[in-house]
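Protocol step 4 of 6.
Sequence for Hydrolase (Streptomyces minutiscleroticus) entered exactly as in the expression construct, tag removed. Do not edit the line below.
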Amino acid sequence: MTGRSRTRLLGTAAATAAVLGAVVTPAAAAPATAAPAAATAVTATATAAQDVDHATWQRDCRAVMAQALPYLEERIAGAPAGERPAIVLDVDNTALETDFGFSYPQPANAPVLEAAEYAQEHGVAVFFVTARPGIVQSVTRYNLQHVGYDVAGLYVRGLGDLFDDVADYKTARRAAIEARGYTIIANIGNSATDLSGGHSERTFKLPDYDGQLS
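Step 5 output, structure tokens:
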């Protein structure tokens, strides 16, 4: 493990400790429903590196979101009457700068927040599906809202699914969102487990550099 990797791990541990020590009030989750899935992954431009700095990561995230945002603009503009569009975001190193934000609340991943804000301003519900355990649900929700996300729903793992396959768990949560009345027009994450399994019209993959980012 390199010095940069050790630093990132220590920082992440510190941020997690801060999260677990925080006290906030949990909020209620929102509804959801059906839509066909035609997943089309968009990959980041940088090759995997042994150590990734924040500027490189942000550049590569922006390269992906530069494709996602025009799609969202066109898709939202053409939404049929009565449709309830939604987007789904992973949390760690997607919505938030988990491996780079060594504090609590952790900063938003700026290019993802920009796309989410555009969606929110145009009536699109923003859902979050994370493999984080339920014990940090309230502090995660607070963090997301604090940095500017409107949280239509936040799905975390409870005791019943804590050890389930991550891809299967996330697929089931997207299906649940559809079952509650939403059309998921985009699913954004930095891992294959965030995006596989369908239940989204389009998928956009942020960089994880061969699993270096959580």
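Step 6, annotate. The CA atoms of residues 96 and 109 lie 5 Å apart.
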